[in-house]
Amino acid sequence: MKIFYHLMLFVCFINMGIVHAQNNYPQNYFRNPLNIPMQLAANFGAVRTNHFHMGLDLRTNSQENLPVVAAAEGYVSRIKVERYGFGNAVYITHPNGYTTVYAHLNKYFNKLDEYVKERQYKDEKWEQDITFQPGQFPVEKGQQIALSGNTGGSAGPHLHFEIRDTKTEECLNPLLFGFAIPDTVAPIISGLYWYDRRFSTYEPGANGIAVKKAGNVYTSNLVQVNSPEISFAIKAVDKANQGFNLGIYNAELLMDGKLIYSFKIDKIHYDDTRYINGCIDYPKFIRDKMGIQHLSDLPGMKLQNYSLSNETGMISLQDENVHTIEIVLKDVKGNTSRLTTKLQFNKTSDKVSPTGKTVMPNEGKTVATENTEINFSKNAVYDAVNFNAYEKPEADPAAVSNSIVLHSPYIPVQDEYTLKIKPGRKLSDTEKDKTVILLDYGSDKNVVKVKWNNDWAEGRFNRLGTAKLLIDNNLPSVSAGWAEGALVNSSSLLLKGTTKVGDIVSFRAELDGKWLRFARVKDNFVYTFDEKCPKGSGPHTLKVTTVNTAGNTNVQTFTFQR
């Protein structure tokens, strides 16, 4: 009878979603942080550029300023105010060992908002990262802590919500905590790919296989390969009843009924999130915007708690028999899709391994051209790269070096490498002081002020592309959104920032000689009128000092009335 009771209790726990394969997270301890039903725009582990998505993106019906409430009792342990990333964020530490994070907020609750504002004026600095003691800002479950928004690195109004292990700071999959989010839709598979692994997944790259669907079962034609060493990858999304393309939670790869690889995305540390680039087909993601996830470990991929099996997913074909391949995808609710196909090796002539400046995983490497040196750490690459670096003439009159082609922007690197460039002529000390390295990686540019090591200019980067040395003598500037001396009736002042090369790295505004709190919104600067500049006052003088990446400083003054 006792055994029967425990068995029935176990079954009940399964039905309640309490028992998970590897985790035993508290169920229903945390409430919805919004007062509207939880709808997902993105889930934990979804593929992003250079990182996993580390929480849930909760829809706010395309609106801002919805109440955001504490998911459980605890205390505000930290806030952040930053230009990109989280924008305005609140961290709440709870007595059960977890911390919740709420990001892209417009405004904190009044008492906290006033504290942050006072700190900003005291420090004369808008960006903040403040920690608190347990007794400073205690909160109750359901208490309003902020208003939702679209601040930081947000592309539209929503709430980013995380649950972290307070001790380890690992981000945990919030969907494992029992939130009531309906989901009856199995993952959707749209592509199967195989790779010749005798050298690298990057060369020659993915071989696509068409997939056919019948219900939640997918098939493909016989996969015939010309290499005895291969691996697979899958293109798939999860829909979760709500239309958005969400990331895959759990995948398994079996050959002839034997599990040879699996991954599950339960927890990730921010220190490791860049390893996403070793879990996906990075060239396809950057070039073609396709999220294809490897069903194997790349040799330089060291993400903890991702791969579940001791196998690497590498398939070594010793015969020309037909083998059965099965791929099983599951979401957190257990909705399952299966793809079955057949695999056969057709022997052909051996592939010739690439030659040249090969950069290997887990090995440091220095690659050089006549006027360039690139130093990679042992953690730099996830898979072998036949690295091609060369110089070509640069037409930009501000350039003082050739263009240095660093292989391809479609190949990822894990950590920063050191790039050294020798200028094409002798530079004066004044010129050296204004020299930057510009790295163009296609979708954007990265500019860093150089450090000089004798006659070599040095910079550190974590993307590949085309680099050059520039002398930047251009001043940064801001332009006012009002006419000089005008009466401003709007609720805020807007300054648009511009700089020809690099970024505005420092901004300071003084109103009638006193520091004024402007928020950084992407490339613009916004001051929302408060008691520092009351209505009916003026005329006012606004002094703005900006500094760009090269260190060029500009001081501008504007006048207005309130």
TrEMBL record:
Superkingdom of this protein's organism? Bacteria
Location of the M23ase beta-sheet core domain? 52-120, 132-167
Leader sequence range is 1-21
**UniProtKB keywords:** Signal
Q: Determine if Transmembrane is one of this entry's keywords.
A: no
Q: Which GO terms describe its molecular function?
A: metalloendopeptidase activity
Q: Which InterPro entries match?
A: Cell_wall_metabolism_enzyme, Dup_hybrid_motif, M23ase_b-sheet_dom
Keyword GTP-binding in annotation: no
- A Pfam family that the UniProt record links to this protein: Peptidase_M23
The UniProt entry, under CDD domains, shows: M23_peptidase
Looking up SUPFAM superfamilies in the UniProt record yields: Duplicated hybrid motif
What's this protein's name?
Answer: M23 family metallopeptidase
